[in-house]
Every structure is written in C-alpha cells, then in structure tokens.
Amino acid sequence: MMVDRELFVSAPGKVILHGEHAVVHGKVALAVGLNLRTFLRLRPGKDNGTVEINLPNIGTKLTWKISDLQALVPSFHNSPESKPLGPSPEQLDFLKTFAGFSNGTTDTESLAVLAFLYLYLSICGQALPSLEIVVWSQLPTGAGLGSSAAYSVSIAAALLATSGKISIPAQENIRWTQAELTLINSWAFQGEKVIHGNPSGVDNAVGTWGGALRFQAGEINPIERVPVLEILLTNTCVPRSTKTLVAGVKDKLLKFPGIMEPVLSSINAISEECQRVLQAGVEGLTIEQYSVLEELIDINQHHLNVIGVGHPSLDRLCQATTSHGLHSKLTGAGGGGCAITLLRPDIEPSVVDAVKQELSAYGYQCWRTSIGAPGVSLHSSSMLPEDVTRSFNKA
Ligand SMILES: Nc1ncnc2c1ncn2[C@@H]1O[C@H](COP(=O)(O)OP(=O)(O)O)[C@@H](O)[C@H]1O
Ligand SMILES: C[C@@](O)(CCOP(=O)(O)O)CC(=O)O
Ligand SMILES: [Mg+2]
C-alpha cells in the first residue's frame, strides 16, 4: 500500500491520583492527562520496500523488509474494524523470533519494538505500507507517567489513520469522533498488553481522551469538572518495569488473598472519597478539603508500600516533603519512578523551592505542573513545539 502524506500525532502522559495497581484488579482509579507528551512522525518509506522505526529516546533504529514482514501476516488475523483480539502468546513468540529477541525478554527496546510490530501487522495486515516512523517523547520512559500508553496510543492512531480505518481530520483543532477514539483506545490497549503484560487500560484511556477520568473494569467516565490542582511531580530516576511490578502484586494477592484484598478495597475507597472531595470542591477547594486530600495521599502511600511497590527512593522523597509539611505518594507502578506532591494554594513559594532543592540534591527531577491535558491529537508540522521539531530533525 502507498502512503502519500506525512502525519504528526501526539498523546499525553498521565498521572494516577489514586488507584494504581488496585485498578488492575477491578478497583476504581482516578487519572488525569499530563502536559508532557509523546510525538510521532509518520512518513512514506523512501524505497517503498521497507518499514523503519526510529526511537531516539532509547537509541533504537530498526528497518525491516516488507517482504519479510509479509510472511508473518497470516498469524495476525485481527480485524481492525472490530474489537481487537490479541496479542496471543503465540503471536508474541513469532514476533520475538522474527526480531531476534530471546524468549522472556522484558527490556526497553524489545517491548517497544514488539508493541510496534504487533500493532503494525494487526492494523495494516491486509496491505503492509512502507513507512518511516519516529516516536519521540517529552516523558521519561519507565517512570510511572504512562509513557508506554502514550507510545501505544500515538502508534495506534497513526497506523489507523494512514491505513484509512479512521479519518485524517483536515485541521488540527478538529478531534477524531468518539467512535474513532474508541477504536484508537482499543488498539492502544493491545499495545499496552505487550508492554505491561496485564494492563488495566486506564493509561491508554487517558492517552486517548485526556482530561480527568474515573476508570473501573474497562468503564471510562470522564470527570467533566475538576478543581485546579497544582502538583509537584518528582522523578526519583530509579528505573523499574511496570510489567514486573504488576506481576509482583498479583503474586502477593494470590499468596495472601485475605490480607491483600482488603488493602485493594481500601485503595478503592480512597479513590471514591477523593472523587467525592474533588466534585464537592469544583469551584475551589477549601483548606479542610485540601487536608482530606492530603490524608488520603498519606494513607494510599502506606497501602502501596504494603502491596510491595514502594522503594527507598520514594521513602526518602516522602520524608523530605513531610518535613516541609507537604504530602506525597508514588504514581504509576512505583518501585522507583515518579511521585506526586500536592501543593496547597497557601504554600509559600519559598517552601516549594526548598523542597525542590532538597529533592534535586538526591538526584531527583522535579516539575511543578497542573493536571489535565488534551488526549490524542493530530498536528501540522508548523504547529509542533520547538523541542519536538528539533528532535524530529535530528532523528
Ligand atoms: N518514547 C519511547 N520510545 C521507545 N519506547 C518507549 C517510549 N515510550 C515508552 N516506551 C516503551 O514503554 C516502556 C515503559 O513502559 P512502562 O514500564 O509501562 O513505564 P511507563 O509507562 O510508566 O513509562 C519502555 O520500556 C519502552 O518499551
Ligand atoms: C500499575 C498500573 O496501575 C499503572 C502503571 O502505570 P505506569 O506504566 O507505571 O505509567 C498498571 C495498570 O493500570 O495497567
Ligand atoms: Mg506503562
């Protein structure tokens, strides 16, 4: 198949306020889009006979011949118009053998490449197009901010658009329809399965729709009005794999169901209470409401330690922020990665500066951010942020 135009797509990262891990086991999570995004550039292939994927964040650039990939197509029977089925263990084994990855591999490159190949073959199976794709992210990878979902959402959207399964909106402020977003989300969920093993689907839902969402057992409910919340987002820079952490929680739940299930139920109750407080305070939270949010953060951080996803780097972070009267919890899969610290409006800027300085001295990276960002979007090249254009030009 011939592709005749260049496309630019982006999807946001996310912050889970409450409910990480519990959401994998059917509990409620509250999550919001983050104003750090993953950008994808898709171009027709130079020689029409190859597919190239270039991932500058992880230093990966690979090219395959379409004629070689064609041999894999019969194993990918998904119908892109309907609900996707895969990925089956057999399909993943095929891909690992094809790409030369050993069985059981979970490193950054292999997960990214397997997710791409799975989506490319499943979505474009009927007529494999020759493409050059670059994916570059403002998000740290493997830090709890949903880079895997932003990656899967942008690849799914670009491949569905280029193969004519969803429209290519003529202007960048025109969004895809709900049906098209639902299709993007369901394919991105399959990409997340390759990367997370057993994802809940909350991250790809935020990557697709953005904003603030309540997510439970596949049900996605946008929270239309949320009070403005300022947070300090801190990356401990301790690397970890969501797949491994999610599997660890499952093992603990199987080993100690009577002990772990009540903890997950309590996390569920925290999400419910947080949503209640946020909705009661849409016009602006009172100091009492902020205090409740802070307590919920503290309780949840203890629970996350109990289910085994804490880390000494996160303990240090919580101690540092507590000593300045601020409250923090890990966000995402934990085991290192990122934490959020709630910034009440009455906090003196000098306190935030002191906290940031202390955390930087540990080698952590901090951003002050407010939550809520638009979901998957199409861009024109002239409207891309400067850092994105620079990265694409270098790639
Ligand atoms: N920009 C990117 N380039 C290449 N791979 C990416 C990118 N973003 C995400 N990934 C893939 O997602 C994985 C990280 O996903 P995960 O462990 O779920 O952490 P998180 O989603 O919190 O960042 C990486 O190991 C890599 O395979
Ligand atoms: C731990 C979990 O709840 C969130 C993982 O987020 P991240 O990949 O660490 O950004 C897993 C999931 O919901 O699929
Ligand atoms: Mg992830």
Please tell me about this protein's structure:
With 395 residues, the protein is of the alpha+beta class. It is built from 12 helices and 12 strands. It has helices at 66-70, 89-99, 108-124, 147-162, 178-196, 202-209, 242-255, 257-280, 287-306, 312-322, 349-361, 386-394, and strands at residues 7-18, 29-44, 50-55, 60-65, 131-137, 212-216, 219-222, 230-235, 327-330, 338-343, 365-370, 377-379. Helix 2 (89-99) crosses helix 3 (108-124), helix 4 packs across helix 6 and helix 7 (242-255) crosses helix 8 (257-280). 47% of the residues are buried. The mean pLDDT is 93. Magnesium ion (MG) binds at residues 146, 148-149, 196, 203, 242. Keywords: ATP-binding, Cholesterol biosynthesis, Cholesterol metabolism, Cytoplasm, Kinase, Lipid biosynthesis, Lipid metabolism, Magnesium, Metal-binding, Nucleotide-binding, Steroid biosynthesis, Steroid metabolism, Sterol biosynthesis, Sterol metabolism, Transferase.
